[in-house]
Amino acid sequence: MKQLISFFLRYVPRKYLQLVSHYVLKVISLFYRGNAVICPVCDSGFRKFLPYGRVGRSNALCPNCLSLERHRLIWLYLKRQTSFFEKPARMLHIAPEHCFISRFDALPNLDYLTGDIESPLAKIKMDIHAIPLDDASFDIVFCNHVLEHVRDDHQALSEIYRVLRPGGWAILQVPFFYPLPDKTIEDPEITDPKEREKLFGQDDHVRKYGTDYAERLQKAGFELKENFAQTLTSEEVAFYALDAQEVLYVVEKR
């Protein structure tokens, strides 16, 4: 299963996987039912989660809703530390994740807009370098595992900051490949997919973030909030199949 999933992730364009993979995985999920791990996003129990990633991570993908470790961490944060599910808010979700879309869209308190440059799941087509929306028009922005793909992440962060209202907040996760470099590695001259994979961790990445990621967020004007992941017990990390090293980057517009 690990090799099969890795193959599809490597060679099938993401937009096609987004359209069909959940149907296939719904069937597979029937064979994984159990109670060793629980997905907090869809409340489904399994004996283990599916592997996921081009270099497959074990116990990572919920076969019911397609949540990964980072999505389950985000959901727990939203439930335990925010009024996300109750307080009226306008939200922009960039490159929306399948496990969140229908759940967020159904929330009566949320005015929910999704956008992406190519995803068939998004409501509007948009380039993150020039978001076609008004200044200070959103209370919340989610943009996860996007910045490592874009030409100019400083411009992208500036655009996210622009469309957020003062006091608004965002979740801006990026992948990390350990050991982390001190400084983010990027070189626009590198276009060869094999060289990109070697240097940046994946052939469609254009940078490899280092320990300076928080500084890059602050340079864009954001204020970092607490690291929620550190409040979880080792039992919770195992039960929800989270990444024990994950840092949840929640930022606020001053």
Can you walk through the features of this model?
- There is one protein chain.
- This protein is of the alpha/beta class and 254 residues long.
- It has two domains: 2-67, no CATH class; 71-232 and 243-253, 3-Layer(aba) Sandwich (Rossmann fold).
- Helix content is 31%, strand content 23%.
- The chain is built from eight helices and 13 strands.
- The chain has helices at residues 2-11, 14-29, 69-81, 98-105, 153-163, 193-200, 213-219, 234-239, and strands at 33-39, 44-46, 50-52, 57-61, 89-94, 110-116, 124-125, 138-143, 164-171, 185-186, 207-208, 222-224, 250-253.
- The strands form four sheets. The chain has a seven-stranded mixed sheet. The protein has a two-stranded antiparallel sheet with strand order 1-2. The protein has a two-stranded antiparallel sheet with strand order 3-4.
- A hairpin with a 4-residue loop joins β1 and β2.
- It is globular.
